Amino acid sequence: MNVRRHLIPTALASALGLGALTACSSDSAASGNTEKFDVVASFYPMAFLAEQIGGDHANVTSLTEPGQEPHDLEVSTKQRAQLEEADAALYLKGLQPAVDEAIGQTGVKTKIDAAGLTTLEDHGNTEHSHEGEEGHAEEEGHAEEEGHSEEEEHARDPHVWLDPVKYAEVAAGVGKAFEKADPDHAADYKKNTAALVKKLNDLNADFENGLKDTKTKVFFTNHAAFGYLAERYGLTQEAIAGLDPESEPSAARIRELQQEAKADGVTTVFYETLVSDKTAKTLARDAKLKTDVLDPLEGITDKSRGDDYFQVMEANLEALRTALGAK
């Protein structure tokens, strides 16, 4: 573990601006053991929280490179050593199995699991139930015979950061964990957390107002990342794939979506920046629908419609308003 030296308190007003993360996004292999509070985050949404809450007192690095699909991450030996040197590890259990395993095996004193700071729900079964294939049913039966506790854990949707209310709950928990782990700067962490939560509450209000009056409530996405967002604002997400962005939909699922597009007045198939858009564009072409980006914010790249979480979420709101026919 690190032995931290006391820092002279500095102003943290700039820490809550909307600029891009530099410490966590530009060098995921940066070493720990600095004079600051060293935090290793699993991927962008966790790194963003750590950067905003930690401010000038925190040195935040991310295990997931910008542009890397976080679900596919394999933790290197160098990154494991980085975890050992860190003061805290911030991650979201269930999203990146390799990270869950690595953090569980390290001696880092403060392990902050964001999944334990809010309530996770199951949004996966709805999408997969559309498939209705015998093989899938047999797999479920086999899983039940072996015991389904592990399956249920993986079925819970980890994409809580796309719901500003749930993300604010996680932020509050992270703030308290930082205060406890680094008490010398607890007052600043508390102040930064309060400011971040306020911004998230304002974002929630923007989504509520922007999506309350629309022609349709149904939207199509590449994978089922937007279940919490849909539930929060009274929408219905229909995903081509399930919670796994790399899973392939069945032919029956594609036909069903084509029929539903006509029935529910769906205009747009959304795809994302970090995974292939081939299936989404094929569905859109066959069903004569438009395509657009709805960013699950698993990473910021030069293709992102904004430099940080808030800017991209506002872009997502505008994309949804257009697709749903907001008045």
Q: How would you characterize this protein structure?
A:
The chain is α/β, with parallel strands linked by helices and 327 residues long. It is built from 12 helices and 8 strands. The strands form 2 sheets. Strands 2-1-3-4 form a 4-stranded parallel beta sheet, sandwiched between helices. A 4-stranded parallel beta sheet has the order 6-5-7-8, with helices on both faces. α1 (44-54) crosses α7, α1 crosses α8 and α8 (186-211) runs parallel beside α12 (309-324). The radius of gyration is 20 Å and the shape is globular. Residues 1-31 and 125-153 have low confidence and may be disordered.
Secondary structure blueprint with pairings:
Elements: E1 37-41, H1 44-54, E2 58-62, H2 77-85, E3 88-91, H3 97-105, E4 110-113, H4 124-129, H5 134-146, H6 149-155, H7 164-181, H8 186-211, E5 218-221, H9 227-232, E6 236-239, H10 251-264, E7 268-271, H11 278-287, E8 290-293, H12 309-324
Parallel strand pairs: 1-2, 1-3, 3-4, 5-6, 5-7, 7-8
